[in-house]
Amino acid sequence: MAKILILNGPNLNLLGKRQPDIYGHETLEDVAKMCAEACTSGFETELRQSNHEGELIDWIHEARDTCAGIVINPGAYTHTSIAILDALNAFDGLVVEVHISQVHKREEFRHHSYVSKRADAVVAGMGLFGYVAGVNHICASLA
Ligand code: DQA
Q: What's the alpha-carbon Rg for the chain, to the nearest Å?
């Protein structure tokens, strides 16, 4: 079974409660279910979330040996973290960057992404479907 890591950065534990006008009412648990259902045969997903940059980096390192792909919503670390970019550069599988909101329509500081320098695909503004699109893309690309 090939594993796809669904990795979520800071504040995404509050999905469903935090700024629902921007991020909607569904939760990370809903994301986990949607991603598991989106897997085609031979693939499985595991969802993790951390508010800590170092923990996210440790999980990306772990994924080098255990995962075929990563769907990552790095939250605000998207716009600040060269360390997460470096960790992703050390990962050989497919990387899809997801943003629930359309970051390019929002504040200027959300327009730049370090993670995009590594991501094989980027989805923004499609709500939680972005995660499903990421899983679909990885399953189809590696089938
Ligand atoms: C986000 C967009 C980021 O700018 C923000 O800091 C988040 C969530 C999104 O999913 O739209 O925490 O990555």
A: 14
Residues with catalytic function: 23, 99
C-alpha distances out from residue 35 to 26, 82, 84, 93, 139, Å? 13, 27, 22, 18, 11
- 2-142 homologous superfamily: Dehydroquinase, class II (3.40.50.9100)
Whether 56 and 83 have beta carbons less than 8 Å apart is answered as: no
The model's pLDDT over 47-100, given as tens digits with 9 standing for 90+, comes to: 999 999 999 999 999 999 999 999 999 999 999 999 999 999 999 999 999 999
**b/e burial code for range 90-116 (CB count within 10 A of at least 16 → b):** ebebbbbbbbbbebeeeeeebeebbbe
- State whether the beta carbon of 103 lies less than 6 angstroms from ligand 1: yes
Ligand 1 nearest atom to the CA of residue 98, by list position: 10
Single pTM value for the model: 0.98
